[in-house]
Amino acid sequence: MKKVVFAIIMLLFISVMAVAQNTKLKFRKINDNVYTYTNYHLFSGSPFPSNSSYLVTDDGVVLFDTPWDETQFQPLLDSIEKRHGKKVVLCIATHFHDDSSAGLEYYRSKGIKTYTSKFTKELAEKHNAKQAEFIFENDTVFTIGGQRIETFYPGEGHSYDNIVIWLPKDKFLFGGCFLKSVESDNLGNLSDANVSAWDESLIKLMKKFPKPMYVETGHFKGSKGWKAVKHTLKLVKDYKPD
Q: Is 98 a catalytic residue?
């Protein structure tokens, strides 16, 4: 009987450790300058993956979105400094939901410049979400360490305020939750979405940046070229409300 109880305890321990390991940051190299990390947040009792990316420049690191899991705010900074020998100097969040903006105020407290669009600021105030220190009203270009970073508002889709981030040198597009992974079979959270406008916004995006090398999505795995964008467009066209 004692052996059975011990075996059950060990199985529970292994299960808990597996969940704990899944909540850690997982890094993926896109190229020498661009990296994606995945963190996990409990959703309906299970760890759910969320992607963010960052750019390494001569003058520091730029984050695109923040971790969803608040326990990973500081570990992300520590990991980046250990991996690249550089500090994070700027963070841009692509929309007001927690899986994009949860760490804004924490990073601001660490002296990191934080930015969102004016639309995101307004929605963050309305929904009592985390807010950036600075805002931009129109599509904006940041230049850090000689690297050009472009923000672009394609129109409504996943949310009223969703923007994307384009790195012309790397031909890398960070789509956040505006874009869905080819692994996704639905549009996800639609609580603030405008599905009827989403397809036009996607087409506008494709015209703006016609030849991306890699596209990162907000959840699950991104893809080379336009696969994720075309998949999102298909999901939008196939969408039928309950």
A: no
Q: Rounded to two decimals, what is the model's pTM?
A: 0.88
CATH of the domain at 28: 3.60.15.10
Query: What is the domain range of residue 195?
Result: 23-238
Q: Is residue 12 part of a domain?
A: no
Structure tokens at 180: 């869905």
| pLDDT value for 5 | 36
pLDDT at 3 over 90: no
Amino acid identity for residue 115 in this structure: Y
Active site residue 32: no
Give residue 242's pLDDT. 58
Mean pLDDT of 67-81: 96
How is residue 20 written in tokens?
A: 């704990």
Dist. CA 131–CA 87, nearest whole Å: 21
| Catalytic entry in 158, 161, 170, 219 | 158
Q: Does 183 or 14 have the greater pLDDT score?
A: 183
Residue 11 resides in a domain: no
Q: Looking at the 3D structure of the chain, how many domains does it have?
A: 1
* Residue 13 in domain: no
Which is nearest to 134 in space by CA: 108, 156, 159? Answer: 108
Task: Note if 41 is an active site residue.
Answer: no
